[in-house]
Design a protein that fits this description.
alpha+beta; Immunoglobulin-like; single chain; 1 helix; 4-stranded antiparallel β-sheet
Length: 217
């Protein structure tokens, strides 16, 4: 009789311990979930704005050296009529032939402009360089991180006309500079060459669930 009572008490005790262990595990799980919710609720919310946005439909996108010429010194490339706003710089090889061109101002044209060497400071014997160019849409914009959160450029996406006209572009691929992060209070410059439709009406930026839109001037 005594043995049976002892075994029964042992079984009851073991059951109570199992119930207690399950209760503790459940409480731990609920506590972890609650802490995660509190932690997420305490995370700051990102905030940013599109300060301005301008679309040039006839910007010079590329310049190709068609003929290198000879006798040149490193110098400046301009549009033949002096209008439209294009400017570039170039470097030369050992023979004075023009080998590389860097666009410093893209300008805005209705057709590809005629580009020539600015002869100021060039030797009288320099001659023969010719160039070709392509024009297209180019968007300039200033973007400001107005919130407390550092945003990774690769996690932000740009759309034109709500994404119906052209595929979205990653912010990291169209900003000037080499930084991969957009820091609180920082204003970054957007320089986006886009060969899609003839024109666009609006630009939008999306990151971390937040979207801002601005009209293209």
């Amino acid at each position: 009789m005594g043995g049976s009572v002892g075994i029964g008490a042992l079984i009851v005790g073991t059951s109570l311990m199992l119930v207690f262990a399950l209760a503790v595990q459940s409480l731990d799980s609920r506590m972890e979930t609650s802490l995660e919710v509190i932690e997420e609720a305490g995370e700051p919310i990102p905030s940013f704005q599109i300060d301005d946005a301008t679309l040039w439909e006839g910007a010079v996108l590329t310049v190709t050296v068609a003929t290198n010429g000879s006798g040149y010194l490193d110098g400046t490339l301009v549009e033949q009529s002096g209008s439209g706003g294009f400017l570039g710089t170039f470097t030369v090889d050992a023979a004075g032939g023009i080998e590389t061109v860097t666009i410093t101002s893209r300008g805005n044209y209705s057709s590809p402009p005629t580009l020539i060497v600015d002869t100021s400071g060039q030797p009288l014997t320099s001659t023969g360089a010719t160039f070709t160019s392509d024009i297209g849409n180019f968007i300039y914009s200033n973007l400001t991180n107005t919130g407390p959160v550092t945003i990774k450029n690769r996690e932000a996406w740009l759309f034109l006309d709500g994404g119906t006209a052209v595929e979205p572009s990653n912010l990291g691929s169209v900003t000037s500079g080499t930084t991969t992060h957009w820091y609180p209070g920082e204003t970054i410059q957007l320089e986006w060459a886009e060969d899609g439709a003839t024109t666009y009406d609006r630009i939008s930026l999306t990151s971390n669930g937040l979207t801002m839109v601005n009209t293209l001037a």
